[in-house]
Each structure stands twice: as C-alpha cells, then as structure tokens.
Specification:
Blueprint lengths: L1 H24 L1 H7 L6 H29 L6 H21 L6 H20 L6
Helix pairs in contact: 1-2, 1-3, 1-5, 3-4, 4-5
C-alpha cells in the first residue's frame, strides 16, 4: 500500500513540475488552457511567477514527500491545491455552473485526495 501511495504522490509531483515548466516555457498557450490571458509584459511576468510558483511548489514538495517517504512534506501542496479547489467552488457558487468548470475541479479533487492519503499513510512509521 505504501509503495502505491508513494507512486501516486510522485505522479502528482511530476504533473506539478510539468505544469510549472509549461507555464515557464510556453506561457501564453499554457495560460489559454486555463482560461487565462496575459495583458502585456506585466501579465506575462505575473503568469510565470504565480503559476510556476504554485505548480513548482506542489511538484517539488510532492516529489520530495514520495522520494523521502515523508507525509509531512505533503501538507503544503495539500493546502495549496485545497485552496485552489476552494476558489473554484466559490466561483461555481458566484457564477453558476459552467461545463468548463467541472474538469479542473475533478482533477483537483483527485489530487487533493492523493495528497491527503499520502499525508496520512506516509506519516506512519514503517512496520
């Protein structure tokens, strides 16, 4: 069970790093996939800074948690993705249901579940 959880958490980490790299190297196409658009150089810089920071932190800490077999390292990415999911839920309540909102929320629910499981399972000492 522990090995499977570490693998899933590691996959979350790889996904986070891939998204961070996508926003760093191909900012405008990456932003468009998230329904975002940069308004000039400041917008591009903000997208790069904020999205790379978010996804990079999730990726690095998730991979560290998986590799080092430490659930405590998963608390920060769990909080970050939980806040992102909460923001989407607030948007859903404020703007109503749109088919575009469901897929990213579903992904975030799965990622939060994986990280929560990892935080719990990897926090226990091995028997």
């Amino acid at each position: 069970m522990r090995v499977v959880v570490r693998g899933l958490v590691g996959a979350v980490g790889v996904l986070g790093l891939l998204l961070a790299a996508m926003f760093l190297l191909r900012t405008e196409p990456a932003a468009a996939k998230f329904g975002l658009q940069a308004l000039g150089p400041l917008g591009l810089a903000s997208l790069r800074a904020d999205m790379v920071a978010l996804f990079g932190a999730v990726g690095i800490l998730s991979l560290m948690g998986a590799v080092r077999d430490r659930g405590d390292l998963l608390l920060a990415p769990l909080i970050l993705l939980g806040l992102a999911l909460a923001g989407r839920m607030i948007s859903l309540l404020m703007t109503g249901l749109s088919p575009d909102l469901i897929p990213p929320m579903a992904v975030e629910v799965v990622l939060v579940a994986i990280l929560a499981l990892g935080h719990r399972v990897l926090a226990r000492p091995q028997a």
